[in-house]
Each structure stands twice: as C-alpha cells, then as structure tokens.
C-alpha cells in the first residue's frame, strides 16, 4: 500500500520583523521540526526576497520556505516571512553651498 500522507511540521518559526539586514536570520533547517509515518523526513530551506526598499511604508519582505520530504516522496511546506526595516532613509542629499 502506498503512503500518500505528507509529513507534518511540529515546529514552524513565526513571522517576525527585524531592524537592519544584519539581523536577518539564516535559512536554517534546525529552526523547524517535522515528522512522518513513512521513515525519515528531510527538511530543506530556501530564502527569497519580495522587494521593497526597507524604508517607511516599503519594508523588505523575505520569505523562508521550509520543505519537508518523507522517504515516500511526499512533501509539505512551512512559510516564514521576515520583514526588514532599515534605519531611517535620506532620499535628499545636501549638495553643499
């Protein structure tokens, strides 16, 4: 009998807001937990930016997609969004006198 049941995430990191790119979390599979009835579960992570400039009403949004795959080839995903706010932006530069 074939197993068509995907793995289940037991821990998926919550979405957060950070200040500064230096505080952007790593794409770390140790941050999640997954289990399944069909053997071992392998978890991978990919990170993609969604644009924005990081200032005011246009923060940078980064999506972390965790994918759990069991030994039978079934998959499940868990998504975490990290919003990055950069320090105040100066769009106007003084050209001197």
Helix segment tally = 0
Shape: elongated
**Proportion of residues in extended strands:** 35-45%
Describe the main β-sheet briefly.
4 strands, mixed
State Rg: 19 Å
**Mean of residue pLDDT?**
85
Tally the beta strands. Answer: 6
Quote the distance from N terminus to C terminus.
80 Å
- What strand line-up does the widest sheet have? 2-6-5-4
Oligomeric assembly: single chain
Query: What's the order of the H and E elements?
Result: EEEEEE
Low-pLDDT runs? 93-97
**Secondary-structure-derived class:** mainly beta
Helical content band: under 10%
Describe this structure in words.
With 97 residues, this protein is an all-beta fold. It contains no helices and six strands. The chain has strands spanning 8-11, 16-19, 33-35, 41-49, 60-70, 75-85. The strands form two sheets. Strands 2-6-5-4 form a four-stranded mixed beta sheet, with no helix packed on it. Mean pLDDT is 85; it is low at 93-97.
Topology:
Elements lengths: L7 E4 L4 E4 L13 E3 L5 E9 L10 E11 L4 E11 L12
Parallel strand pairs: 2-6
Antiparallel strand pairs: 1-3, 4-5, 5-6
């Amino acid at each position: 009998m074939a197993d068509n049941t995907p793995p289940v995430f037991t821990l998926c990191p919550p979405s957060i807001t950070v200040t500064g790119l230096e505080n952007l979390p790593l794409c770390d599979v140790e941050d999640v937990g997954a289990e399944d009835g069909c053997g071992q579960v392998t978890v991978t992570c990919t990170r993609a930016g969604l644009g924005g400039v990081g200032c005011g009403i246009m923060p940078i949004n980064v999506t972390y997609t965790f994918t759990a795959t069991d030994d039978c080839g079934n998959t499940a995903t868990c998504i975490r969004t990290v919003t990055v706010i950069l320090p105040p932006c100066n769009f106007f530069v003084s050209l001197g006198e």
